[in-house]
TrEMBL record:
It comes from Granulicella cerasi. This is SulP family inorganic anion transporter. InterPro entries: Membrane-Transporter-like (IPR052706), SLC26A/SulP_dom (IPR011547), STAS_dom (IPR002645), STAS_dom_sf (IPR036513). It is found in: Membrane. Its main location: membrane. The chain crosses the membrane at residues 30-57, 87-105, 117-135, 147-167, 174-195, 227-248, 268-289, 301-319, 325-344, 356-385. Residues 393-490 form the STAS domain. PROSITE patterns: STAS. Keywords: Membrane, Transmembrane, Transmembrane helix. The lineage of its organism: Bacteria, Pseudomonadati, Acidobacteriota, Terriglobia, Terriglobales. It is a multi-pass membrane protein.
Amino acid sequence: MSENNSVSWGVVQREVLAGLTSALSLVPEVVGFALVAHVNPLTGLYAAFIICLAAAILGGRPGMISGAAGSMAVVSAGLVMQHGVEYLFATIVLTGILQMAFAWFRLGKLIRMVPHSVMLGFVNGLAIIIGSAQLQHLHEGGHWLPTAPLLTMLGLIAVTALVTVLLPKLTKAIPSALAGILAATAVAFALHVHTRTVGDLASIHGSLPSFHIPAVPYTFATLKICLPYALVLATIGLVETLLTLNLIDEITETGGRPNRESMSQGFGNAVGALFGGMGGCAMIGQSIINLNAGGRKRWSGIAAGLFLLSFILWGSHWIERIPLAALVGVMFVVSFETFNWKSLTTLRKVPGHDTLVMIVVTLVTVLTNLAVAVVAGIVISALVFAWDHAKDLEITTEENEDRKVYYLDGTLFFASATQFTRMFAPKTDPQRVVLVFENARVMDASALEAIDGVARKYRAEGKSFELVGLSEHCDRIVRRKGLQVGSQYV
């Protein structure tokens, strides 16, 4: 009994510390994203607190950390600058509704269509974004910091990174990222080092968020403004969330629930916006920090959300005194650990198109946004798949005086339809022609049109055309078109 209790307490302690570490790393990220979106930092922190709690309690992926996201902040900036923050709140409510509709129709399974090469590009692209985003803290007014402050920050970053990387080799009793933050903070205080702190970004002190209905005219004109942004934001949020879910599934060798996670993200966004929050989704950097700190259950996400709220209400004075370099150091380590270095060593061992997809997705993720990158990767993969399968279509023939049999091998669909029609010779073939599908599949309308076109050519020559050997599925498709199976085409 006592042993079970001690184990349970150990798990709770680990989860809470993981949540604290994640919450600390969230603060500068979320404040930075809020500034990118041209909204008050508390707007970002409120969103992070609410979305983090909603995803942790209701979501389908324990251990994943959600919050106000940079990918959504970039899109939101244009809306805020043109129409104001109230339109942002209305848009995020609509974004949440769209995401919940996505989950309601159980479309989360679409994530299975994302190829592994796209996943690698996504991970590597976000790793680069996480790392490069930290460089802004080493700049001031578009230029590098003066030599002394820059060296001070680099020294504290090095302390944080070394502790974060080396501590797990000695003990795992305390999350290494948390230890790194505490070590850099202790060094800064002990040596009376003057360096940039979290408070230099913005004050995070505030009160409990209050319920607020967006102050916009509820007209069709408003919908025309909000809906395009909501569609983009919903797509970006879902793509980043579900790909992060997939990544954590692989790391933890467990299974998440995409539809449940999509529903919780939508709920978190809708409720968050009604309490003055910006948009958010799963955050890969903080999720990796949470996993590395030992967070595997919902408690870590709940703890992260509650710690964020406590920072806003009571702990802002202390959090604002943490050296910014400590949190930057942690994120640099996360960036390094997130990047899939193995993908670089296997470039020559995988098919060329997979390498191309990975590179394209990585670059587009960095240069534009994740949704565009993933769509581009899927389109390229689909085109390559279609091209390869189109080339695999083959026909062999067997002929006697009054009959010619065509044996089709492969997949007949839009990419192979033209090649298929060129394989027949209606003018010179004998009176009876049979097309055997035992080793082939009919996949789409282009395939049916190709078969129908060939049949019409034989009919114009006064010759018969039969289809035999169709699978049950292909048989239904062909009969629906009006083609007769296993008998003369009329």
